[in-house]
Amino acid sequence: MKREIFYLALAGLLVCSGCGVHPGGRSDGKSEVQISFRGDFSPLVAKEGTSVKFAKVASPGSYTLFLKVTASDISPDLIFVNPDYDFEMRPDWVVLVPNGNDRTFELFMYYNGEPATDYFDITLWTTLDPVEARTLDLNGTPVTLAINIGAAAVTTQAGTTGAAAPDGLITIDQGGAYPVPLPECGYTLSVFLTDTEFPGIEFGPAFVLMDSTAGDGHYLIGGIPADRTYRIRMERQQMGWGGASSAVLFAPAQINAVNVTLSGWQNFSATPLNFLVADGDTQAAPISLKVQGGWAARDIFHSLSLSAPGAAAILPGPIVQPGATVLYKVTGTVGSDTVDNFTISDNCGTPPLVANPKAWWYRAPKIDSVSPDPIWTQGWTGVYIYSVGGSFDALARDGKWAEISLDGTGMTTQGGDTTFGNYIYFDSPIKSSGMHTITVRNARSNPIFPGFQGFIDSLQVQYSDTVGW
After folding, report:
1. How far apart are the first and last CA of the chain?
2. What's residue 36's pLDDT?
3. Which of 98, 269, 324, 460 sits between 20 and 30 A of 129, alpha carbons compared?
């Protein structure tokens, strides 16, 4: 295959004395060099929709130039980077190189294409000239050097090799003795490539879809320039996973076994693990249930969906995405105390991961009205409080009456509807004329919620010197 040849000239630049450069050479022990492309250079044709003006480091459609200068008395090597070379503007690139003999120049150029699946859309150009043709002595006087570069025609692959004892796996550290291969469940990893000679700039991303039938942790990704040393980094950002391989010299015409171990594992969990629900309170705000950690999307089931359909709803639905918040909404009534048992399962790995939150439902009183209304200020025997939907505790049904208080002082519940909880009554003491507060409580306790004493409802009622009916 014919290799494309491009020409780069390293030309001396003379500037004004105010800039610190003097005709005949510099006085600070360095040579100032201007880098510019010359000759008939045609950049790769950008894909449809790609911006022509390249402004980001390794963004889609961008070119990155690396200039390496080596010499026996220079350590470490000098690396110059032009991360946003623009073929329209052809900007000058000025570098300062220490004076001395045998300064060897080597040029590399990367084109970073569009994100692709199982493939790096990148192209590497390397220097073609022999070492002696690009080695100069610098003494402060501007020099000119032409460097020929050509596209590397050979690419290779990274991934998993072997069957009985596979090598080159994607694993994740879960805190055990050994990292665990990632199960194949249809999620995607973003993959980036770094030339270890030029750390700090990544190319990509490529995407690896973990849905192979080959086995857990297996992957294959191509488009990697051969005969260069790279480090592969992978991440699953929404889960907080990330990790990089060791440096690998990529050989041509084979699958290079590259192991990547990710960190950032979170144990599968749901919070809160226990929460209270007022039965029938359809006006209450939805309860947020945070599901996080584990592997991938998960299924969610709750027992009331079978035993009391319509009492509660899971939003947005039965499939929970990673890191999502589930909304638990009361949409009806159960009519008694109960527990809604959740089973949230992540079936990606083996064995499946399971979380079991519980919604603790308790009968919640709802006051409809009182009689008499207004209540006589001189006291009244038999003030009736009526409920909405039989929501008061009833003696025959619940083993106790709902509790009554007036302006924060407990009253004795004298009786009521023993079976259906439609009403209760108490004897009112003498009160001043005006508004007072009646509160009804269905008394409960639960050691999981130490401060919980049962749900209440209150109503402002009027006391007057005249009894109302």
Report:
1. 103
2. 52
3. 98
What is the domain range of residue 164?
Answer: 155-262
Question: Residue 465 has what DSSP assignment?
Answer: S
pLDDT at 416: 97
Say what the pLDDT of residue 94 is. Answer: 73
Q: What phi-psi label fits residue 310: left (phi over 0), alpha (psi between -120 and 50 degrees) or beta? A: left
Within a domain: 216: yes
Asked, as a colleague might, if the bond just before 91 is cis with ω within 30 of 0, I would say no
CA dihedral 135, 140, 142, 147 (to 10 degrees): 20
Same domain (yes/no): 212, 253:
yes
Is the domain of 191 the same as that of 166?
yes
Q: Phi and psi for 307 in degrees, rounded to 5?
A: -80, -30
Walk along the chain (469 residues) in steps of 10 and give the mean pLDDT of each run. Answer: 39 29 64 54 30 45 89 92 72 79 93 94 92 92 81 92 88 94 91 92 93 85 96 93 96 96 94 96 93 84 93 81 83 95 89 93 97 96 96 95 98 96 97 98 97 97 88
CA distance 170 to 233: 11
Query: In terms of domains, do 141 and 54 share one?
Result: yes
Q: What is the pTM of this model?
A: 0.77
Question: Hey, is 215 helix, strand or coil?
Answer: coil
CA–chain centroid gap for 307, Å, is 36
Q: Give the per-residue pLDDT at 393.
A: 97
Confidence at residue 4, expressed as pLDDT on a 0 to 100 scale: 40
Provide the pLDDT for residue 213: 66
Phi-psi region of 109 (alpha: psi -120 to 50; beta: other; left: phi over 0): beta
Q: Are residues 26 and 70 in the same domain?
A: yes
- CB half-sphere exposure, 303, CA atoms < 13 A: 12
Residue 431 domain flag: yes
| CATH number of the CATH domain containing 304 | 2.60.40.10
For residues 217 and 347, membership in a common domain is answered with no
- Residue 43 in any domain: the answer is yes
Q: Which helix (H) or strand (E) holds 304?
A: helix 304-307
Amino acid at 250: F
CATH number of the structural domain spanning residue 182: 2.60.40.1120
Looking at the structure, tell me whether residues 346 and 373 fall in a common domain: no
Tokens encoding 427: 């004897």
Within 10 angstroms of residue 145's Cβ, the number of other Cβ atoms is: 19
Place of tokens 């959740």: 342
Q: State yes or no: cis peptide before 76, omega within 30 of 0.
A: yes
